[in-house]
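Dear colleague,

Thank you for sharing your sequence with our group. We've completed the structure prediction you requested, and as agreed, I am returning the results in plain text so they can be pasted directly into your records. Please verify that the sequence below matches your submission; if there's any discrepancy, let me know and we will rerun it promptly.
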Amino acid sequence: MSDAQRDRPTLLGLLPWGERRAVSDALRTETVGGLVLLVAALVALVWANTPWSGAYEALRDTRFGPSAMGLDLSVGHWASDGLLTIFFLVAGIELKRELVVGELRTPAAAALPVVAALCGMAIPAVLCAVVSSAGGGSPTAWAVPMATDIAFALAVLAVLSTSLPSALRAFLLTLAVVDDLGAILIIAVFFTSDLNLLALGGAVACLVLFWLLQRMRVRGWWWYVALGVAAWVLMYNGGIHATVAGVAMGLILRTTPDGAGGAGRGAEKVSPGDRTAHRLRPFSAGVAVPLFALFAAGVSVSPEALGAVFTRPEPLGVVVGLVAGKAIGIFAGTYFTARFTRAQLNPDLAWADVLGLSVLAGIGFTVALLIGELSFPDPAQADHIKAAVLVASVTAATVAAVLLKRRDRIYRRLCQEEDRDDDADGVPDIYQRNERGAA
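Please find the predicted structure tokens below.
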């Protein structure tokens, strides 16, 4: 290798040891949650297509909650506006951690995943709008195929027993985190009802107080729970989707501990953000998201319903956006960013690996279902969009499985090299060899 090649930045290279541990902890929980999510989605589909579908619809539409606070909501509504707030809170914390101590903390490191994620949102949206409009339909569904479902994608890998090197898994996680931020911005900007400025002002005041308590290092969790609930209620009544409150609180929470390595009562070993994510991520991945899927994925899969996916322009646009748009957008964004920055791909990997990961990102289950509900208030149209999301996610998973399985032997070898610890000191040998080489 020449000196010029050695000096070029490496694309999808070995992660730093601290970053790899944080990514592994997050993905381990997401993988288990993804398997629960798959089961919940299958239960919803089977239940909604049996003679007992009436019971499913009755349960989903059952209303409860304090009507005086404007919260007399259906079970399905509580799942989408309430439980998914926990999901977006964890996503906000993860994004904050990436921005402060993770892959997005420097412009050079952030360029690749951010550009790839933005292309992976823009191209699906454009393709969906073009296909819908060309077929004489409305481009209303343009935002549906923009998000990647990390839990569903990891569950597919787990079912297939497919190993991926840590760099590819981290890249997939970062794509999903940026996607989640884009999705919440779209929800906040494009899917607002009549605004109640007084309620929104109260929500902002709660979030400002939340931020001040973080700045003052107040540690009583009850303050934050009370303010979080109040911000959620006020945000909902203010006309903005209540999940926005979740991601706002996640971005406010600190992700670096005070006095790390120091002594004394004031030193923190774990930041508030990491502590909150550690406690809430199992509930988010294992309960909140699967329950949302249980009440959102129950759509008809009759021949007529499936036929509508490929004959109606809006559902067809969603399928094209998720399956083709995601693959084209992420792969093209990655390739041209590497060319522009003169980065060289990790010699242990190939561009076929990037393509397989790009196709896998076309699994856009949870957030895509949520945006589909918001885009189409009419239940019949919403069911067609949901069916399109399911068809597209299964298609993307199948194609990605074929592409990634072809390289599984290489992935397993790389994972074994990354995990090998002959001296049993808790740190893989590959990191110690790199340190000795650098010295």
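Summary note from our side: Confidence is low (pLDDT under 50) at residues 1-5, 260-265.

Kind regards,
the structure core
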